[in-house]
Specification:
Blueprint (H helix, E strand, L loop, with lengths): L1 H26 L6 H4 L6 H11 L5 H13 L13 H36 L4 H15 L2 H15 L11 H31 L2 H8 L4 H39 L4 H10 L3 H29 L7
Helix pairs in contact: 1-12, 5-6, 5-8, 5-10, 5-12, 6-8, 7-8, 7-10, 8-10, 9-10, 10-11, 10-12, 11-12
Length: 305
Amino acid sequence: MLAYLTRRAVHSVIALTGLVIAVFFLARLTGDPTNLYLPPEASREAREEFSRKHGFDRPATEQFARFVGDVLDGNLGFSLKKQRPAVEVVLEAYPTTLKLAAVTLLIAISLAIAVGALAAYRPGRVFDRVGSTGSLIGASAPDFWVAITAILLFAESLRWLPTSGTGGFPYWVLPVTVLALRPFGLLVQVVRGAMMDALASAYVKTARAKGVAERSVIFVHALRNALLAAVTVAGDIAVGMINGAVIVETVFGWPGVGKLMIDAVEQRDFAVIQASIMITAAAIFLMNILIDLLYVALDPRIRHQ
């Protein structure tokens, strides 16, 4: 296990290095920040001073070498817009995104396990058909379209919920619902398929022959084995949650790291872009390793070679 974790860590560092290099140079293709942060009537001397102060007058390769040196010293740069260290800006936004993602995943996973397990227990019945159809719709619906439609219907037309921002329970309903639709739809399909295989297996038939209560057969014997497939997909969903969060946070004005990335790109705040990508990538790599360890906890037969 230790050798496996070491290999995963090395692979993660290599992937993170390649990602940082790509982001560094691609971010600079968005344009010169001097034109954005100084007024059009600014003098040539003022523009040259701004570029010199922030190192934009240097060749890209020299800027990158300086950036690498700063990263090795624990410095991820200084935000042009916020006038603060970029890492502080990113870490300040992360708790908001993590809370949104955690609540969304908890709701989506809990509902999907219940719906998928019950649908598999009586395949072809009304509950199975309704659950399968609803899950397919949720898995296929684009986040941005659902978000805009939900705002038009529930916020603008019915005025039941706020259009954007943060606050009490009403502000959470639309963002969480929109962000949970795709994970819920995917997980219902996975849990249903895995449960149907588990319920047809020999150990379930043996449990029933021994007179084990049907509730225990479904939620203990079958569901525990079916959860391995669900954990795989749930892990991928959790890792990719930031992609959906970018859209949802932007549409609903949710002040998380997804919206921060979009704003940083528009404002050409290179340090915040780079810090956001680095911290997010590191969190994703760590989450992948934790998911692998969870496999072993759920099924001791699994051994990483």
